[in-house]
Amino acid sequence: MENDRASSNRNINFQTLSYLYKKHSSQALEMIGKEIDYFSDISKERKTVSTLIKLLSRNPEIYKKLNKSATIIVDDIVEKKERDFYYSNFKFDSLTDFHKELLDYLLDDGGSILKSDLAHLFTLSDSLEWKSKVRILRNAYYGESGSFDSAETRYNKFISPVLKKYKETEMIDLIERINSNSQIYDRSFNKYINKRVKEASDKLLGEKYDYSAYPNFLRAVE
C-alpha cells in the first residue's frame, strides 16, 4: 500500500513480516501459492519495492511463487545495479552464480559497495565457502581502488577489520590484487598498510612463503 500510514510503518511492518515468515515459513509459502495474484499485487514505488527485495533476499523461495507482474517490477529495479543488486540472490540458481555476478560487477562495471551490503551478504549462508567468497569481494573492491586515497580508505573500511580472519586462499588473492594495482603498492604513505598485510600473511602462510611472484608487493613493504 502507498499512503502516509503505510509509509511511516514500513520498517516495522517489514520486521514483523520477516519474523512471522521465519516462524511459519511453510504455512506462509503455501498461502502465497494459493493466492498468487493477491500477493503479486505489489507497489511500484522504489522504496517500497526495495524493502520487498530485502525480504526476498532473506527468503528467496517467495520470489519463485510470485507471478510475472510482480517479478517484472522487482527485476527492473535490480537490473539498475544499484544497492538493491546486492540483495538479488533470489534471482540466481546458486550463491556461486550470484557471487560471480557480483564480482563481475565490481571488476568490470566499476561498481561500488557499502559495508552494510557486505554484512548482509555474509548472512546469506553459514558455509565456510560462502564466507570466503564474501571476503574475496572485499579484496576485489580494494583491488579496484582508483587513487592512493581511495586505497587507504578502502583498506581501513573493508580489509583491516577482517584481515585476521583471512584464510590462505583469501590472503593470496589479496596479495595478488595489491601486486597488480600501483595505487596500492606505489605510494610510500601506504607502506604501513602493506606492511600490516605482510605481517598477517607471514603469520598465516609462514615467514618462508615464497613471495617472488609478487615483486610489487615485496617492494611496497621494504
Could you tell me how far the N terminus lies from the C terminus, measured between alpha carbons in angstroms? 61 Å
The portion of residues forming beta strands comes to under 5%
- Overall shape: it is elongated
Q: Element order, helices and strands? A: HHHHHHHHHHHHHH
Q: Tell me the number of strands.
A: 0
Number of helices: 14
The gist of it:
The protein contains 14 helices and no strands. With 222 residues, the chain is mainly alpha-helical.
Description:
- The chain has helices spanning 4-8, 10-23, 25-34, 36-39, 46-58, 68-78, 95-108, 115-122, 128-143, 148-159, 168-179, 182-185, 191-205, 215-220.
- By secondary structure, it is mainly α.
- The chain has 2 domains: 1-91, no CATH class; 92-222.
- Helix 2 crosses helix 3 (25-34) and helix 9 runs parallel beside helix 11.
- The relative contact order is 0.07.
- The model has no long low-confidence stretch (mean pLDDT 94).
